[in-house]
Design brief:
206 residues, 74% helix, 3 domains, single chain
Length: 206
């Protein structure tokens, strides 16, 4: 019985010593910045910024220690993480703003027809303004002809300035018209998308 206990204790001691034996048989190798290889039980000082490979006596790789990151790599990673956080925060801000716009859109209009009606009313108002300006421009051009025939150059120049002002106002109104139409059309498309999505969600829930 006692010899068996001795054998068990001896086996346990060998197991405890095994890692140390393996460690003693391992060799560390690394390559410095100039491409020279270094071998030894510990990494050479030249390799403190390089990857270290642990091999056994036969040259088989046992382990690998990654090279420590350089200050430049650390700063780049910090910068990239900050940029990623900024992009995520911006995406979240845009998502919340879109959600607010969607809620206002659904609360403002009873349906697509209401959006079409509001759009057409705004466009009609702008068209009336442009039409009125065109009538005034036509009258001023008639007046200009008469003043030119009377050789009233000062009055001709004054009329030219009035015509230019109305034409500029019409150009601004046309730009405004295009923007209004685009905005209402986008609202109409988004409204239909939201209603369709809600209907699909309700159907799926049932």
């Amino acid at each position: 019985m006692i010899p068996s206990l001795y054998r068990a204790a001896a086996a346990a001691a060998l197991l405890l010593l095994a890692p140390a034996a393996v460690a003693q048989k391992s060799i560390k190798k690394c390559q410095d910045a100039e491409g020279r290889w270094h071998y030894g039980d510990t990494a050479a000082e030249e390799c403190e910024r390089s990857k270290i490979t642990v091999i056994d006596k036969r040259g088989l790789k046992l382990d690998e220690v990654a090279a420590p990151r350089s200050q430049e790599e650390i700063e780049r990673e910090t910068r990239e993480n900050a940029e990623e956080r900024t992009r995520a925060e911006e995406a979240e801000r845009m998502r919340e703003e879109q959600q607010d716009r969607d809620q206002r859109l659904l609360a403002t209009y009873e349906g697509p027809a209401a959006i079409v009606r509001a759009r057409d009313e705004r466009l009609e108002h702008i068209d009336r303004t442009i039409g009125t300006n065109n009538e005034l421009i036509a009258r001023l051009r008639e007046k200009r002809v008469a003043q030119a025939q009377a050789r009233a150059q000062d009055q001709v120049e004054a009329v030219d300035r009035q015509i230019a002002a109305y034409e500029e106002a019409n150009a601004t109104a046309r730009e405004q018209r295009a923007a209004v139409e685009a905005r209402y059309n986008a609202d109409l498309e988004r409204y239909r998308e939201l209603v369709s999505r809600d209907a699909s969600g309700s159907a799926a829930a049932r």
